[in-house]
Amino acid sequence: xxxxxxxxxxxxxxxxxxxxxxxxxxxxxxxxxxxxxxxxxxxxxxxxxxxxxxxxxxxxxxxxxxxxxxxxxxxxxxxxxxxxxxxxxxxxxxxxxxxxxxxxxxxxxxxxxxxxxxxxxxxxxxxxxxxxxxxxxxxxxxxxxxxxxxxxxxxxxxxxxxxxxxxxxxxxxxxxxxxxxxxxxxxxxxxxxxxxxxxxxxxxxxxxxxxxxxxxxxxxxxxxxxxxxxxxxxxxxxxxxxxxxxxxxxxxxxxxxxxxxxxxxxxxxxxxxxxxxxxxxxxxxxxxxxxxxxxxxxxxxxxxxxxxxxxxxxxxxxxxxxxxxxxxxxxxxx
Length: 334
Ligand SMILES: Nc1ncnc2c1ncn2[C@@H]1O[C@H](COP(=O)(O)OP(=O)(O)O)[C@@H](O)[C@H]1O
Ligand SMILES: [Mg+2]
Fold this sequence. Notes:
Blueprint: H1 22-31, E1 43-47, H2 54-68, E2 72-77, H3 84-95, H4 108-116, E3 123-128, H5 137-143, E4 148-154, H6 157-161, H7 166-172, E5 175-179, H8 185-198, H9 207-215, H10 221-237, H11 246-266, H12 270-282, H13 287-297, H14 304-316, E6 321-323, E7 330-332
Parallel strand pairs: 1-4, 1-5, 2-3, 3-4
Antiparallel strand pairs: 6-7
Helix pairs in contact: 1-2, 3-4, 5-7, 8-9, 8-10, 10-11, 12-13
Bound molecules: adenosine-5'-diphosphate and magnesium ion.
């Protein structure tokens, strides 16, 4: 297999590996049109469930724009970089390549001032998982900068708005919005088939097997690709044959979600890890009890809202599960 990365659910694929999403890609490309004349586009908002190609589409569109026009870009995943200062530092550092930004010695206001210089030069900042930002005012701070446009990605619009002050809401949340739907079974099957073709493994998986994986992936390409990878790995480790059996597909379907879960678990930062450990120790546990326990353990405790949004994201990533609603809401490890 020449390119094992083609079976990684994290890959930002080349455009010829992308099937479907051409409408969304075109919409984004069109929204970026002003950049070709040296102007900043309106902000852009991408919404949709997990694994429907939001990150992929945004990054491909921005990469292509960079080939065609003079524009600086930055990509930040706010699930990892959720604090204002970290975010501003990362964005400034990426946008102002060539200039040295010393994280310790350059003051925050200086970073922001640097971003205001050169108003003729468009800049695009992708804020992925934007609902995870600790303080959404930072969106306003960025938006205010001349020639700077935001591409905000979130699962749901409510997540973007949650905890947002009025000013940010009225100024920042103006622009084009694109909704991404779940993939259908046959769409997922064609995404998988394309990868297998590129790997020159075309007879190894049958059309029915692609469909089988597609139908058990809940509309999520990340689950589908992971399932395919597990099935291919199973076939490779069975000596004497390379084609994938139905049994291997069935086992891969069973394992995929858990494999993804463990990968996500591995990548939690200290704060998220602490929340996970509390759920593990105290399950089933209410959000209020998690907060109390967390405040005891943490030196500089984060706000209730930050904790709530991180718990929500951990549920989306299948790291923990949520049972019940409102007053009766409880979190469990599995
Ligand atoms: N239309 C598509 N064609 C090819 N690969 C896709 C497509 N949509 C998603 N993928 C792949 O699925 C994985 C998840 O997509 P991603 O853009 O990260 O989803 P989201 O950001 O919506 O959660 C990535 O590896 C991506 O390359
Ligand atoms: Mg994404």
